[in-house]
Amino acid sequence: MNGFSTEEDSRDGPMSQTCCLVDDGERCQRPAGNASFSKRIQKSISQKKLKLEIDRSVRHLYICDFHKNFIQSVRNKRKRKGSDDEGGDSPEHDAETPEVDLFQLQVNTLRRYKRHYKLQTRPGLNKAQLAETISRHFRTITVNEKDTLTYFIYMVKTNKSKLDQKTENASG
């Protein structure tokens, strides 16, 4: 589902509509962004006991950027498993971990990611389901920040890229 309940609603796009959420009993009047209210968001809201609910009288599922960021920040405050850093279990560390919105990527890009990492999924996933599956995988990838930053700075200073190294190795 693309956030709309009818084809007529989809012609105007999300920007001509207001957020579909009711915040502490009061309907949000901010303009809707392109983020859709999903079961995952609903689960986050109920787990964190937030006073947010969907206005059942609206004919779309788009939420404003304010509520999108608010829900993401609340979701990011949970403790992550398997962190290698000393501060990995502290709430301050988790709040600094950015949430990557893979839904903004094109479907072909998501499929390439899935193929590259050989992720097993059922056939026929829509964009939202594919982005959700890839997000779960993406969060499990561990990165050695010190090595990555060192390598990045080296590449910037030498004005090279990883692709340059592959072509040099192939020709040399």
From TrEMBL:
Domain of life according to the entry: Eukaryota
Domain Histone deacetylase complex subunit SAP30 Sin3 binding, which positions?
A: 105-157
PANTHER family named in the record: HISTONE DEACETYLASE COMPLEX SUBUNIT SAP30, SAP30
The processes (GO biological process) annotated in the record are: regulation of DNA-templated transcription
Q: Where is the Histone deacetylase complex subunit SAP30 zinc-finger domain?
A: 16-85
Sorted alphabetically, the keyword list is: DNA-binding, Metal-binding, Nucleus, Repressor, Transcription, Transcription regulation, Zinc, Zinc-finger
Species annotation: Eptatretus burgeri
Care to name a GO molecular-function term for this sequence?
Answer: zinc ion binding
The compartments listed are:
Nucleus
Q: What is one term from the GO cellular component aspect held by the record?
A: histone deacetylase complex
Organism lineage reads as: Eukaryota, Metazoa, Chordata, Craniata, Vertebrata
The UniProt family comment states: Belongs to the SAP30 family.
Q: Which Pfam families does the UniProt entry name for this protein?
A: SAP30_Sin3_bdg, zf-SAP30
Mind telling me which InterPro entries this protein's record contains?
A: His_deAcase_SAP30/SAP30L (IPR024145), SAP30_C_sf (IPR038291), SAP30_Sin3-bd (IPR025718), SAP30_zn-finger (IPR025717)
Keyword Transcription regulation: yes or no? yes
| Chain spans, region Disordered | 75-100
Q: What is this protein called?
A: Sin3A associated protein 30
| Record has Metal-binding as a keyword | yes
